[in-house]
UniProtKB/TrEMBL annotation:
It comes from Propionigenium maris DSM 9537. This is N-acetylmuramoyl-L-alanine amidase. It comes from the Bacteria. One of its GO terms (cellular component) is outer membrane-bounded periplasmic space. It holds the Pfam family Amidase_3. The keyword Glycosyltransferase does not apply. The keyword Heme does not apply. The lineage of its organism: Bacteria, Fusobacteriati, Fusobacteriota, Fusobacteriia, Fusobacteriales. Keywords: Hydrolase. One of its GO terms (molecular function) is N-acetylmuramoyl-L-alanine amidase activity. GO terms for biological process: peptidoglycan catabolic process. SUPFAM superfamilies: Zn-dependent exopeptidases.
Length: 344
């Protein structure tokens, strides 16, 4: 009898010490189709709650007032296609649930009774094309670009890669091609097309060439007034095609002032570095690195830009990849991936 009295005393004092009865958040569940997260509250009382969303960190924060969390109501790594992880924080009189979303995910919270629960439906953000990418396939028309091993022409190879890149990106970005056929377009007109269409990034696609047939590999350039002697040589080579077809490339002016020039350079170099690493690894090609140089086609564009030398058309093993659509697709995928990484 004494034992039961003691037990009743303990139960009473415990519930008294908590004051008003709190709602218990009992469980967090995920359903696959449609993709949703369910927060079970148990019982029949709907808690007051506050929801905030931090767009920059893609973080939903819900605070349930006068609520405590059950033992199994805990943080977890989800790593799904919609939710990265969930953090549960126990406050003195409330429970905080932080939901870290993956990229491009929309959410909608709704309440259900009997039993009380909150349901968050997730969906992928589609066709929200915020950015415009200018894809510039080098050379074209009477300008074949570099003629390589077994007479493969730069203009054909880079146009194929450019088209695959357009396919790769068109669902997520507005795409403008400086040329969509085998057509000659002067360098300054290419930059102008980019500016007219308010491009957020200019991607010029080329293939390198060298007198030494052994020279091979992948490299990415961006516009810089200063350059190494090697990068200056590559830029002079690409610029020379403009000159050869009657264009005075020195007339192509840098559009914006120094602040923009520096900001664009930093961004361009970042994309270039990311791309050089992943491309050479995936294609098993030598990574010749990234370089700043005075490329006329990049100088005239008002924004960050990269010039991709997809490989050496003068090298037999690079050409073996450059000529095959299977590898051209992979090249486009890698370029596309770095662009996505940069914007999203
Ligand atoms: Zn070229």
């Amino acid at each position: 009898m004494r034992y039961y009295l003691l037990l009743i005393f303990i139960i009473l004092s415990t519930s008294l010490s908590f004051g008003a009865e709190r709602i218990q958040a009992s469980n967090i569940r995920f359903n696959g189709t449609p993709p949703q997260m369910v927060i079970d509250m148990g019982g029949s009382t709907k808690p007051k709650y506050e929801l905030n969303y931090d767009e920059v960190n893609r973080l939903i924060f819900i605070e349930f007032k006068n609520t405590k969390a059950a033992e199994q109501f805990v943080s977890r790594n989800v790593n799904g296609s919609y939710v990265r992880k969930v953090d549960v924080v126990r406050y003195p009189t409330s429970v905080g649930v932080f939901i870290h979303l993956q990229k491009n995910v929309d959410y909608k919270l709704s309440y259900r009774s009997n039993p009380v629960r909150f349901v968050i439906d997730f969906s992928k953000r589609i066709n929200k094309k915020e950015y415009t990418i200018i894809i510039d396939a080098g050379h074209g028309g009477q300008d074949p670009g570099a003629i390589g091993f077994k007479k493969y022409r730069e203009k054909d190879v880079v146009f194929a890669v450019a088209k695959y890149l357009r396919e790769e990106l068109k669902n997520d970005f507005n795409i403008v091609m400086t040329r969509s056929s085998d057509k000659f377009i002067p360098l300054n007109e290419r930059a102008r097309i980019g500016n007219r269409n308010r491009g957020d990034l200019f991607v010029s696609i080329h293939a390198n060439s060298a007198a030494a047939a052994s020279a091979s590999g992948f490299e990415v350039f961006y516009y810089s007034k200063k350059s190494s002697p090697y990068a200056a040589k590559v830029a002079a080579f690409e610029n020379s095609f403009g000159e050869e077809y009657g264009e005075d490339t020195s007339n192509i002016a840098q559009v914006k002032g120094e602040t923009e020039y520096n900001a664009n350079k930093v961004q361009s170099a970042k994309i270039a570095d990311d791309l050089a690493r992943s491309y050479s690894k995936r294609l098993n090609m030598r990574n010749r690195g990234t370089h700043g140089a005075n490329f006329a086609v990049l100088r005239g564009f008002d924004g960050p830009g990269i010039l991709v030398e997809t490989g050496f058309i003068s090298n037999s093993s690079d050409v073996w990849k450059l000529k095959q659509s299977k590898y051209q697709k992979i090249m486009a995928q890698e370029i596309g991936k770095s662009i996505r990484n940069h914007f999203y």
